[in-house]
TrEMBL record:
SUPFAM superfamilies cross-referenced by the UniProt entry: Quinoprotein alcohol dehydrogenase-like
Pfam family, one: PQQ_2
Domain Pyrrolo-quinoline quinone repeat as annotated: residue spans: 46-238
Taxonomic source organism: Rubripirellula tenax
PANTHER family per the UniProt record, alphabetical: CELL SURFACE PROTEIN, OUTER MEMBRANE PROTEIN ASSEMBLY FACTOR BAMB
Name listed for the protein in its UniProt record: Outer membrane protein assembly factor BamB
Length: 456
């Protein structure tokens, strides 16, 4: 009498169940972060991977290779991983067209659409064995827009929420599949003329029940949100942009969640319902390709076309509103933590690993800046043997990995001194950024996907 009963009440039981459920969700989120690769440059868009014993630092065509899968056609999207399933996209042409090659293209795109019937394909492979589990043909027909001679009609990386796969073929449409390969819905995109006939390239991103798509072009640029379950358009916001191909970034900072999209004319942050939160003219490079990401509570924006004198990198603080740099005053802006006028790559996206920001330049150099201040750590260091780069770097276990277009991965010691620890050859054209999931490194070459892991 007068003492609390040790037997849980109905309310206590609900509370216990809730606590257990939340604990399970936290555990699952940690597992998901390590075992899945849900979008371009991973779930957090940084390219930084938790240290994993199964990830080797050396490989070639046979060493530490678990399996190799042939992928027909051409595509430059990264592999996406959900559980034991690997997804890649490709476009297979019935007729031969211009083959891509390494190096810079400083001119116009291919002025006419590619010849022949094309097949826009999605492939699913088993992560453990490399066996093909299913394939689906999203669309069949003739291309109606040209493309960059180095690019592909499957340039974008898919995105996933763990239940559905969102496949964007930029000038064609957005297709949603179940993980088992059933087409759930599609939203066709009206193709537009792009700058220099380069075509689309920005990848989709998912947040909650929305999948976001950016399509900058010369006629009718926009950012839009589609319902992940139904495909219905939730909102669409016009963009006064032409020469931007960067994948948008959903920035979950301490103050709010927003969508960050760089642009050649204006860099912008949008709310999750498509309203502009902030903007500034960063005097960006004439072509904006690197994708934004966050580290140390800052969001990093960059553009660095090789022919431009101004190739800026900006580190943005959260909470911005309105025009954050009127009259181009970057150094005195409350929301620009730091700015470097000549610190950006052309095609690759930068990476922050530890306290350092690493930039891999297309022409075969790397630089390092302090991620919190922008101060120079070391200037341009040339890769040896020389190479050119389109794929973005990734990092883990105290090393930064850089994949050249010739299929050679340079393993760089992380820190204030540039040191090449070793090189790993695959000897085939590589444009796609690699993916890492469940102790496996997935490298996509022109014709294959390699699964690389430490062999026991």
């Amino acid at each position: 009498m007068g003492r609390s009963s040790p037997i849980p009440t109905a309310g206590d039981d609900v509370l216990i169940r809730l606590i257990a459920f939340l604990g399970l969700m936290i555990l699952c989120s940690d597992v998901t972060a390590d075992e899945n690769w849900t979008r371009f440059r991973g779930g957090d868009a940084t390219g930084v991977v938790a240290d994993t014993p199964g990830l080797p630092s050396s490989w070639n065509k046979t060493e530490n290779v678990a399996w190799v899968a042939d992928v027909p056609g051409q595509g430059w999207g990264s592999p996406v991983v959900v559980g034991d399933r690997v997804f890649v996209t490709s476009v297979v042409a019935d007729e031969a067209n211009i083959a891509p090659s390494a190096g810079l293209y400083l001119g116009e795109g291919v002025r006419d659409p590619a010849k022949g019937i094309h097949h826009w394909m999605v492939f699913c492979f088993d992560l453990k064995s490399g066996d093909k589990l299913w394939e689906h043909e999203s669309f069949t027909g003739r291309p109606v827009v040209p493309r960059h001679p180095k690019s592909s009609y499957a340039a974008e990386t898919p995105a996933t929420d763990g239940e559905r796969l969102f496949v964007l073929f930029g000038d064609l449409g957005l297709f949603c599949y179940s993980i088992d390969g059933k087409l759930l819905w599609k939203q066709m995109i009206e193709p537009k003329k792009t700058n220099m006939d380069y075509g689309a390239a920005a990848s989709p991103v998912v947040h909650g029940d929305q999948v976001f798509v950016v399509y900058d072009n010369k006629e009718d640029s926009w950012i839009a949100s589609f319902d992940t379950q139904t495909g219905q358009q939730k909102w669409r916001t016009p963009r006064d942009e032409v020469m931007s191909w960067a994948t948008p970034f959903v920035w979950e900072n301490d103050l709010r969640t927003e969508i960050v999209v760089p642009g050649q004319r204006v860099n912008r942050g949008y709310s999750l319902d498509g309203n502009e939160l902030w903007r500034f003219d960063g005097d960006m490079s004439v072509l904006v390709i690197p994708s934004p990401f966050a580290a140390h509570g800052l969001c990093y924006l960059a553009s660095g076309y090789v022919g431009d004198a101004h190739r800026p990198t900006f580190a943005i603080r959260p909470g911005a509103t309105g025009n954050i740099a009127p009259d181009g005053d970057f150094k005195n802006s409350e929301f620009i933590a730091w700015y470097q006028p000549q610190c950006s790559p052309y095609n690759t996206s930068q990476i922050v690993y530890g306290d350092y920001l690493y930039t891999v330049y297309d022409q075969g150099f790397m630089t390092c800046n302090h991620a919190l201040t922008g101060e120079d750590v070391y200037g341009k260091r040339r890769f040896s043997p020389k190479g050119s780069f389109t794929a973005s770097p990734w990092a883990h276990d105290g090393k930064v990995y850089c994949l050249s277009e010739d299929g050679l991965t340079y393993v760089i010691k992380a820190g204030p001194e540039f040191e090449i620890l070793q090189t790993n050859p695959l000897q085939e054209l590589c444009i796609a950024t690699p993916s890492v999931a469940g102790g496996n490194l997935l490298i996509r070459t022109l014709t294959k996907v390699y699964c690389i892991t430490e062999k026991n």
